[in-house]
Specification:
Blueprint lengths: L13 E7 L9 H15 L5 E7 L3 E7 L4 H12 L5 H16 L4 E5 L4 E6 L12 E15 L5 E7 L2 E8 L2 H8 L5 E12 L5 E13 L5 H10 L6 H12 L10
Parallel strand pairs: 8-10
Antiparallel strand pairs: 1-3, 1-4, 2-3, 4-5, 6-7, 6-9, 7-8, 9-10
Helix pairs in contact: 1-3
Length: about 260
């Protein structure tokens, strides 16, 4: 007969309860439970010292124990997340759990069992998303020209930047459009006035960008650029070092002893 193996809680271990009110242990899908546990592990850190214990009845409550030696680090980490601080992956874990809770129409909290105090609240469905109006400002965007089209006076472009295909680039300057079209499949930097929007998660997206000018970018590799820099002839004499000292320290006045 198969037996359930369970880690025995040791003296000095600290227990945490993560409660989700959207499900009970019998209605919680296994895949969803795994998602919550993964993000909770990111929040708590110390992966080799944080152990899953069991699910409690009622609302889904994930009980985990932290080994005594790692307990102070976990305590410090979760309280930092509570303040909106801590490592990036821990803060991202908090945001992801909130997204999961909103999608599941639930709320949650992380509680230290011994003190029964709530360490972190996850507002989930109760969180009011911030609304941001679009911002229009001058700027630049780097990328590779991947498309040019236009049936009317406005010519539209698409750009591949950081692995993402962006559209919304446009201009009515025909001469500029022809020059930019000649850069098809080449890296460029577009200058103009863009309209940007930010969602509730703090991610910015480009709505449209009116191209006013552009410049081609060199797609040479870093090693090629370094080789070209090394090939530039340069000679350092005493006068050059003297000029560097002046730039760094400023002129010294013997009358007042300098600074």
């Amino acid at each position: 007969m198969a037996r359930t193996m369970k880690r025995v809680r040791k003296k000095g271990d600290v227990e945490y309860r993560f409660v989700i009110d959207a499900y009970t242990p019998t209605t919680m899908p296994m895949a969803r439970l795994a998602e919550y546990m993964r993000e909770l592990a990111l929040i708590m850190g110390e992966p080799s010292a944080v152990h899953f214990q069991r699910l409690q009845r009622g609302s889904t409550a994930i009980l985990s124990t932290v080994e005594r030696e790692a307990a102070p680090k976990v305590h410090q980490r979760v309280h930092a997340v509570r303040r909106g601080e801590g490592p990036k992956e821990a803060r991202e874990g908090y945001r992801t759990i909130n997204r999961l809770l909103r999608a599941d129409n639930g709320v949650g909290y992380l509680r230290e069992a011994k003190t029964r105090g709530v360490v972190i609240k996850f507002p989930g469905r109760d969180e009011v998303p911030e609304e941001f109006t679009a911002v229009r400002q001058h700027g630049s965007v780097d990328g590779i020209v991947t498309g040019v089209r236009g049936k009317d006076q406005t010519i539209h472009f698409t750009l591949l930047t950081e692995g993402q295909q962006l559209s919304g680039f446009q201009t009515r300057n025909t001469a500029l459009a022809k020059k930019l079209a000649a850069k098809f499949r080449e890296p460029v930097r577009l200058f103009g006035k863009g309209k940007w929007a930010r969602d509730a998660e703090g991610n910015w997206s480009l709505l449209d960008f009116r191209v006013e000018s552009f410049e081609g970018l060199d797609d040479a590799t870093l090693s090629t650029v370094l080789s070209e820099l090394r090939a530039i002839p340069a000679q350092w004499d005493d006068e050059a070092y003297h000029e560097l000292k002046l730039m760094r320290n400023g002129p010294r006045d013997k009358g007042n002893g300098g600074h």
